[in-house]
Amino acid sequence: MKVDENRLIEAEELTIDTQNRGVLRKLAADYGISDELVADVNRLMDNAANGDFELDELRILVPASSGNTEEITQYDTRTFTGYNNQTYYQEILLYKGISGEKDAKNLPAGWKQYLIKFFKDGAAEAVNGIMSNTKFGKAWTLLSVFGQSVDTAIYTECTARHTVKLCENKLIKYTYYVSGIDKHLGSVIEFTTDYHFTNLLNIPGQGVEVEGNTPRRQFGILDIFGSGDEKDYFHYVNSPYTYSVSRYDFNCEDNGEKIHLTFYSLYHG
Hints:
- By secondary structure, this protein is an alpha+beta fold.
- The protein is built from 6 helices and 13 strands.
């Protein structure tokens, strides 16, 4: 587990079943996972269960123990010496998820050029296949067909709807100042390792979606993410330092019409 640019500590990676809270409870008890991190995982699972978003993956990184199960929950076996020669303990939550859909634009008949413009890779080939009544085949790399014969042709001479989803992969680092047997949360720092948007073209009554992704990007400040112990040292007495990546903006333009959507991080939703 990376403490900062110059220090690494051995870590154990724990995988959480997104559908089974029993796994979380057992791992929390076995590894002494902090109450704050457990509460955040439960909140993510609650929101996913309510249909707010899809939660694809949950993992927790904790400092590795010596292998003696009696020592696993003792923080002094899994701490490190950090800023100002003090003792700290860290955990990292990793998750991957997909937001619900948001409407970008309702499209009138004749949306071939719109599709080529915003769905790009493979879209022209797909649309040409649609317009020429070509059968579905290997060339349809961007099409998902539900409940239809592969021989069915879809034409652009119908209305359609452009919707967007956020795909988010995020790390949250929790750093604690350790004093004797006590630990004090001093910083919670987020870093988005990968976010992008999925464009969906929904054709009503046809059961067809054309899908295309925007470029993948990162969001956050690595120098801050790597300074959890320093932030912890100055903030644990009063309230934890937080660095949040709370929102993402989707922007595009169609013939002078600006389209803007705001997506909030799944962690903050």
